[in-house]
Amino acid sequence: MAGSKPIGLAWRSNTLFIVSTVGIGLFTDLFLYGLVVPILPFILRDRVSLPEDQIQTYVSALLAAYAGASVLFSPPAGVIADKTSSRQAPFLVGLVALLAATLMLFLGQSIAVLILARVLQGVSGAVVWTIGLALLLDTVGPANLGKTVGSIFGFISIGELAAPVLGGVVYKKAGYPGVFGIGLTILAIDFIMRLLLIEKKTAAKWEKQDNGTEDYTNRQDDGTATGEDGDDNEEEPLLRKKEEDNYKVPDGQSKVVRSFPILYILKDPRLLVALLLAFNQATLLATYDATIPTEAEELFGFDSLKSGLLFIALVLPYLLLGPVAGWLVDRYGPKPAAVLGFGYLVPVLILLRLARPGGTPEIVLFCALLSLCGLGMAVIGSPSIVEASYVVSQYDNANPEFFGEQGPYAQLYGINSMVFSFGLTVGPLISGLLRDRIGYGNMNAVVAGLCLITAILSVIYVGGKPNFLRRK
């Protein structure tokens, strides 16, 4: 391999550093998204001089611009990542887009510039989630993906919680420069970490040059991802060959499928249900974001700061239990977590109707119910990614020539990001409409019904059909 060995190769390619870099990248995306949201009305009023009766419309348009760009650009980001030899390069490009978006939001004086900024922010979000998750799988493998995702999701939930509160407080104390100063500082840290990162496969080439070790491979060992036993026996080669035949891609695929091979795998009901888990997880998160502040204001007269603090009750269990739940997914497979997690949320969501106007006892009850919801969110945080990665790895290992050297993992996470972003988009719209029409308690009952359907589908499809549903 030409050139001199990179300085700090060992720690720059260390698993913890790579995972931390991805975590900081995802944290930055969510943090900057939440940091700006509370001050959008003030930007439109003070800088663009919009009439008061148009501000809500344009705030919604700016939110939609972010979500729409994220949904549309996620699949192309996956294709680009799988066609390039390095995950790092597009990972850095995504950060450049986020930097440009942040500066445009800070300096923009027109609606067009602000909308373009939000579009760039959405594009950056699509890239960081797509490339970041693919880089995680490359680094830790499917056997450790669950606990890694659980840990990262718990960490980035802090950014999702703190950003809106911090944005409002800092804007009140220091104005626009204070808010965007925080954003640019976090961007600088993120940029340095992404620039220093060295991928495992790149580090392996240097190690091979030094001591003759084998090349790093991007093919994923799939056995432990679903809690399968890795012991060999005489029947295993035959069983493995029979199972592999189920994932063979026939010859003669269309040009579109050859260019975007994840499309072929989307016929698999296991992958579709895994994506449904991601959609419902995002819908739940967005529902909490959209309805908890308004319900707290109505019940307890809370302002935005106190409503923001309520999210601690929701996020803290997620932060503490996310890694444990992820480890259990790695150990026992995604089916138990998906079934029990979504099934558990059914009665908990229904119990949210117990919240009543009042003082400290009623506030404590509401916080306790939110903590129970947070426990459920920790359990359902990992199964979607782990299940989807396992299904795709089966097709990839059975058809290495069809999917290419890097496999279709970035394409998978592009689709996952698109589905997740769509859930974040429709969640507030549906929950807000239902809350206005049928009340907060009944709205949560509808969401509980969605969780029940998801739990039933998880029994049937996640981790493969159970024995009692298989044909004899």
How is this structure best described in words?
The chain has 472 residues and is an all-alpha fold. It contains 19 helices and no strands. Helix 5 packs across helix 7, helix 13 runs parallel beside helix 15 and helix 16 packs antiparallel against helix 18. The termini are far apart. 46% of the residues are buried.
How would you briefly describe this protein structure?
This protein has 472 residues and is mainly alpha-helical. It has helices at residues 9-12, 15-36, 40-46, 52-83, 88-107, 111-140, 145-196, 200-211, 236-245, 255-259, 262-265, 269-300, 304-332, 334-351, 360-379, 383-398, 400-403, 409-438, 440-461.
List keywords for this structure.
mainly alpha, 472 residues, 19 helices, single chain
Strand element count: 0
User: Into which percentage range does the β-strand content fall?
Assistant: under 5%
Helix-strand string: HHHHHHHHHHHHHHHHHHH
The biggest beta sheet reads: none
Work out the radius of gyration.
Answer: 23 Å
State the distance separating the first and last CA atoms: 54 Å
Helix proportion: over 70%
The mean pLDDT is 82
The poorly predicted ranges are 223-232
Shape: globular
What's the helix and strand layout?
Blueprint (H helix, E strand, L loop, with lengths): L8 H4 L2 H22 L3 H7 L5 H32 L4 H20 L3 H30 L4 H52 L3 H12 L24 H10 L9 H5 L2 H4 L3 H32 L3 H29 L1 H18 L8 H20 L3 H16 L1 H4 L5 H30 L1 H22 L11
